[in-house]
C-alpha cells in the first residue's frame, strides 16, 4: 500500500487527483457506451499503451497526471 502524505496539502492533492481520475473514467465509460469504441482503441488514439488504459479501467483506477492530460485531450476532441 502506498504511503499517505503527512501534510494537509498533500492529502488534498491526493484527493484531487483521485477525483480527477474518477471523472476521466466516467467520461471514458460514457464514450465507450455511447459510441462503442473499445478501450484499447481509445488508448491507441490518445497515445497511451493498452496497459495504462487497463489501469484506469480496472479495479485500481490509477493513472498519472501526464496520461490523464493525454486522455482528456482525446476525450475533448471527441466531444465527450
Provide structural commentary.
The chain contains four helices and no strands. It is an all-alpha fold and 80 residues long. The mean pLDDT is 91.
Which secondary-structure class do the elements indicate? mainly alpha
Mean pLDDT: 91
What portion of residues is helical? over 70%
How large is the count of helical segments?
4
Topology:
Blueprint: H1 8-35, H2 39-46, H3 50-57, H4 65-78
List the keywords.
80 residues, 4 helices, 72% helix
Concise structural overview:
The protein is mostly helical and 80 residues long. It has helices at 8-35, 39-46, 50-57, 65-78.
Amino acid at each position: 500500500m502506498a504511503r499517505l502524505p503527512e501534510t494537509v496539502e498533500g492529502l488534498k492533492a491526493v484527493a484531487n487527483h483521485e477525483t480527477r481520475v474518477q471523472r476521466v473514467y466516467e467520461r471514458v465509460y460514457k464514450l465507450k457506451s455511447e459510441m462503442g469504441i473499445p478501450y484499447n482503441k481509445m488508448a491507441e488514439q490518445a497515445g497511451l499503451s493498452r496497459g495504462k488504459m487497463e489501469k484506469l479501467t480496472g479495479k485500481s483506477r490509477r493513472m498519472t497526471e501526464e496520461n490523464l492530460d493525454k486522455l482528456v485531450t482525446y476525450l475533448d476532441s471527441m466531444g465527450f
